[in-house]
Each structure stands twice: as structure tokens, then as C-alpha cells.
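Duplicate of earlier report; Cytosine permease input re-posted below.
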Amino acid sequence: MENKTNTVIGEKRTLDQSLYNSDLAPTPEEKRNWGWWSYTTLWMGIVTNLVAWEVAANLIRIGMNFWEAFGCIGVSYGLVFIVILLNGHSGAKYGIPFPVIARSIFGYKGAQITVVMRTILSIFWFGVMMYIGSKAVNSILSVSFGWWAGLENTHIIGMELNMFIAYLITWLMHAYLALHGVEKIRRFELWAGPIILFLGIGLVIWAIKAANGIKPLVSMSSTIPDGEFWGSFLISMTALIGTMSALMLNIPDLTRFSRSQKDQTIGQAIGLPIMFGIFSLMAIFVTTGTVYAFGSPITDPIELLKKI
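Output:
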């Protein structure tokens, strides 16, 4: 397809440029080099984000006990894993991304609607991640430099100056990775994901000490009123699954780089349900620990680290 033409019964046709470009073309064999560890570490990076932490932590805040929260997480991410595994199969088999796969269902015109919907969803989530990431950068700079917090007295375009600068720093870091392509992101996740998991383990140890053992963390009673549990359970499932809605659609954009079906299946089986389970378990443990340490649940790990 490199010459942008094809031949049908002796007739030479020019490919429609609106339907083809290098990003939409099947991934060549030399670029299909992602093994199972690449997908495992990629999911470590995807899983270990503040939104996933806060959504899991808020299950404790609304009144679920440890086991109820963990059950809700297990069911939700179990369903997500099944959908992602099914959607990722065609990407690994044919080396094609989500927009091309969507054409087989909606047609080449109808597929544009799904791409626009996914784009809107991606813009929303990018905005959420940028804001939360900016809070983290701002907190790091605030505790590192005594004068940094004083910048909040100056405002620019409706934002405190220190938060505005933190936003720019976060945006530039995102832009650097994005401009260097998905391979750069993969290499970044190889070390970023494990580092965040180690930080989570440190917070779990702190929570166990705050509660004087694991038993108090897992035995705290539920405070959800009788008759309201299943409604809260289903709403919480919607929130948990919603955080993964974009990737449930566009996972072929990542599995198209897989060396084989086995690599993407094993890597995602380790990286998605297991890592989500571990990370969410950390969030539940730590949030329950904050109840013992401070008298009320703290769901934002940034605020928690600042208190510590």
C-alpha cells in the first residue's frame, strides 16, 4: 500500500486519501515487537493513576466496607478485561487500529461518528488527567521550595500563578511524550509504572501502622443504609467501568504492535485485572487507614501525602 495504489483486474486505482494514511495502514512486521512484558508494564502505567485511585477510594467514602469495595472493583474490572481482550484480538491479528476496525461494523462513513465520539471522550479525560497531574506537580514544588506557595496570591487567566505554571510543566511533559510516539510512551511506562507501585506499597505500610494492624482495616463496618447497598454497588460499577471506557474501545491501537496473540493476551491478563486489583486494593487499604489516622477518609493521595 506504500505506493498509494492498487490493481483490480488490470485496472489501476488511486486510494482515497481520506481513508488511508500511514497511521491507519496495517502495522508492518518490523514494528510489531511488543512482548507480554511491554503490555504488563504499559498497564502498570495506565492503572497507576490518581483517577483510578480516587474512584476506588471513594467506595470507602460512600460507606462500603473493605470486602464490599473490593468485590465491586473485582466485578467491574473483570468485565472491562473481557471486553478489552475481545476488542484487542483483531488489532493483534491484523495489525490495524480502532478507526479501521470500526469500518467493518459501521461502514467507512459511520465509523467517523465513533472516531468523533472517542475524540470527545479523550479530550475530556485528558483535561481531567492534566488537572490532577498539575495538582501533583504543584504540591511537589510547594514542599520543595518555600517561596512557591506564595505565588498563589497572583492570578493569571483565572488560575493561581503557581497552579498555572504547574499546568504548563505538566502539559509540556505530556507533549514531549506524545510527540515522540507510542514507542516513547512504552519505554517511559517500563519504569514509571513500577515506581508508582512501590510508592503505593509505602502508603499501605503507613496505613497498616495507622490502624495498628491489617485486621482493623478489613473489619471496618459498612455505613451504607439497609436497602441502598445494591444501588450504590451498581452506580459504583458504572464509575469504575467509565474510567476505562476509552481504552475499551481503542485497545486495538495498542495491540496492533503485539508480536502475537499470546503476547497481548498474557501481558494484558497480568497487567489489567491483576494490576488494577493490586492498585485498587492499595487505595482501599490506605483510605481506610486515613479514617483511623485523621478521623475521616481522605481519597486524594496528593492531599494525603501533603498531610504525611
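The radius of gyration is 22 Å.

Merging into the original ticket.
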